Amino acid sequence: MSGHRRTWFVVLPDTDAGAAVAAVWGTAQCRALHHPSGRPWILGHWPSGEAVTAQAGPVALAVLGTSDADPHRLRHHAERSRDPHEALAAAPDLAGSFHLLATAHGTVAARGTLSGLRRLHLAEIDGVPVLADRADVLAAAAGLTPSTDHLALRLAHPLPHPADTLPLWPGITPVPPHHTAELAPHRPARTTAHWHPPAPVRPPAEAATALGQALHRAVDARTRGGGLVAADLSGGLDSTPLCFLAATGPADLLTVTLGSLDPHHDDAVWADRAAHHLPGKRLVLPAEDLPAMFAGIDTPGPQGDEPFAWTRTRARDEAVARLLAGHGARLRISGEGGDEVLQALPAYLRTLLARHPATAARHLRGHRARLRWKLPDALRALADPRPYPAWLAHAAERLTHPHPPGTTQLLGWGIEPRLPPWATAHAADLARAQLRALRDTRPLAPEHAQHQVLHMVRHSASAMRQLTDATARAGVPYSVPLLDDRVLDACLAADPATRGTPFAYKPLLTAAVAPDLPADLLRRTGKGDFTPDTHQGLARHRAGLAALIEDSALVRAGLVDPDTLRRACLGLYPPGTPYAALDATLACEHWLRAHATSPHPHTPPGTQGA
């Protein structure tokens, strides 16, 4: 089942010019949905069954992706709507991960997901504004060439907002994940915010109930179609509840446990405990039987519209996808995203301090003990009054500084970005200039902690979007219920003192799923670490990495110094390889190799030979 066609779609305005632009994509080779006027509306390739549509007079609705939508509900909503924005009000009633689109009276409105897992981009094709879920589709159609200069900042880690969502092709405009895009005749395309983070004030019991309901609906949206559904059973506190929820649906369940090379890794122990309570078949895959970390590092696979952060595990994930396809699974449910949405970073102490100073002081003591902070450093970070633009401007000047040990930056807007030691002075100049250009950026939420959660969610969603594309082509796509809008909204609304407490591990989740799991499975207080697998994988594939560096596109672009990179990764005694920085560099290297040569105009990537 390998070699599947890549999924993508474009959205056209309801105009004669829009209809003419449709020819760019060769409409005879695409799936197509039409405006009530009869003009082409949505063109592309998506799996059968992943489009739910309805029309009532001049109003049409489409849901593309995984959802619990049905045509009757959509039609009822279309009948009550006067314009496309009213029609999009169906979003709060739907669960899953999907794009939502509406057209009425010549105007189109469209949005993706809050996490950015389902994104939208805007560009002009032959003078016509067009939306697409993938930037590279628009770039190919418009004949755009990526900017190497824009790639320089992508070498930094962690990539700050909004640099993490900016496209790498000049001429393409990203639609922010919480915005709705509009295409209308006789006026430029525009975007407007349709969502703002909820106030984090919901008390623990109410928050747990809301999250439990959101998780039930999220998993149901994935199992309601029946068939065989695979689900990761790592033994972790994120994936295990999803397996139990999936077991209650109409689909048959195949649980999947991946092993580690670390003999002290305890994920398997917890996975075995959970498996005793679960129905269906189980697949246990020893690490020795799977591609190692960094396998195939010198042979990049197909690339999407941005660098793929999890390059080191790609060969393993694709191998598992092929294996699951052989068992007949149609998707793989993953607990990814749990670390991001189910916890609040210590910056919540800023708001807690004003409301409940005694509780804040107790929590601060817990975080200091856990993270080994000195009290003066923590108090100084909590008192830092800088707004986000000032923080970003300060970070721009410190891109090449070392990260301070035992950092208390988690008490502010987040960890400042740093370039890796192998980035050239030219790359640093480019990255610094790009950050300075973003000096008017607003944070993702007024509260520091909420901003950090949303930033981490978008970083995770970016990686999952690329991984889902890669594994879908290999046979079975990833599916991540914990990044659904309803789940994210429920978590953000919870009192962050509940999510962020240093005295319990993911207490909001354990309370939410307590009715669904045996109590002993909720007692875990940590998670496994795959660092030994990473070390051994790098050692095993040193030759491939050396070959990649020897013929590096980033080196040719003047962004990476090859000698410094070799010493950091390939020396006999490498001085502590910074794996997050290496991931970012490998992702950029693979992406640049794939996109350095401009695609033939009007050829959507991934359609050749599909």
Question: Topology of this structure?
Answer:
Layout: E1 8-11, H1 16-21, E2 31-34, E3 40-45, E4 51-56, E5 59-67, H2 71-79, H3 84-87, E6 96-104, E7 107-111, E8 120-125, E9 128-132, H4 135-142, H5 148-151, E10 173-175, E11 179-183, E12 190-193, H6 204-223, E13 228-232, H7 239-247, E14 252-258, H8 267-275, E15 281-285, H9 314-326, E16 329-333, H10 338-341, H11 349-355, H12 357-371, H13 375-382, H14 388-396, H15 425-437, H16 448-474, E17 478-479, H17 485-493, H18 496-500, H19 507-513, H20 531-540, H21 542-550, H22 553-556, H23 562-570, H24 579-595
Parallel strand pairs: 13-14, 13-16, 14-15, 16-17
Antiparallel strand pairs: 1-3, 1-9, 2-3, 4-5, 5-6, 6-7, 7-11, 8-9, 8-10, 11-12
Helix pairs in contact: 6-17, 6-19, 9-16, 11-12, 14-15, 21-23
